[in-house]
Design brief:
The protein has 313 residues and is an alpha+beta fold. It has one domain: phage-related protein like fold. Helix content is 26%, strand content 26%. The strands form 4 sheets. Strands 1, 4, 11, 12 and 13 form a 5-stranded mixed β-sheet that branches. It has a 5-stranded mixed β-sheet with strand order 5-14-10-6-7. β12 and β13 form a beta hairpin. The termini are far apart.
Amino acid sequence: MEVSLAHLDQFLTNYSIVYGNQDFVGGRLFPDFPVSKQNDRYPIFGFERFKSYNTERAPGMEANEMPGWRMSNDEYYCDGKAQKQLIPDELRAKWDFSTGPEVFTTETLADIIDKQREIQIYNLVMNSTAVPSTTLTGTAQWSDFQNSDPVAAITAQRSTILLSCTKEPNTLLIGYPVWLQLIQHPIILDRFKNHALPLGYPTDQQLAGLFNVDNVIVAKALYDTTQQGVTHNLNYVWGKNAVLAYVPSGQGQLMITPGTTFRWLYGVPQNGGMLVKRYRVEERSGDMIEYQTYYCVKLVVPGAMYVFKNAVA
């Protein structure tokens, strides 16, 4: 059976755009950038403006001319991502929940696609040799309250990022197990001894001020480490790691960004490149809901990040 855009369900598509698992945070490091072509190239400028030039000009002489831009380029290709699920007529007949089966199914499919993107971004950040990192062990791990100093460790890498990408870091992403240790760390609590802590620990906004960043992102996304048919075993996608990064306020031209999710609009820009199709499968006595999108997760400026692996025990 050929499934085309004629099967696009406008209501479910609009709903899927609004819906999003708040625990998925990879998109805040690799934000969406809509593109009109499935594949293309983008320019990468050099560091000419940071060079030292002779700017002196004698009377009557021409101004010195700087060398031409050293510009390279890279490419992206948006692979198709899709997942579908059948709503049998029997299930619809006995459905008792306030949320309809179409909406529930759309949420589930969107969650599956978004989870895979989260894992892909995590693997790209953690496994790339181009991203500067350090693996903490023993007394250096921030769970060692007697010997470690997470504030000093994170602050020390600010210049690493600035020297690499020309921007100061403004974002700190921490796995949930890391957050649990940081809010109990004596060095951090000592910084707030003269501040009100209604919850007994610093808020994310207070931690952002302490680490001199605009945003502290606590990564709580979960995934099942077992295969289908086996008892589930949940774990954190971002594990016991932390990422210090510079992330621009928006995606566009002439910017520095650690990564981008190029999302092909697929001829329907009003839907943001995320489509939900609904079509009848008579031979199976049910309605098929299919979620579809095209994107490419791309590491753009590796030096805009610094990774602390195994930050806690």
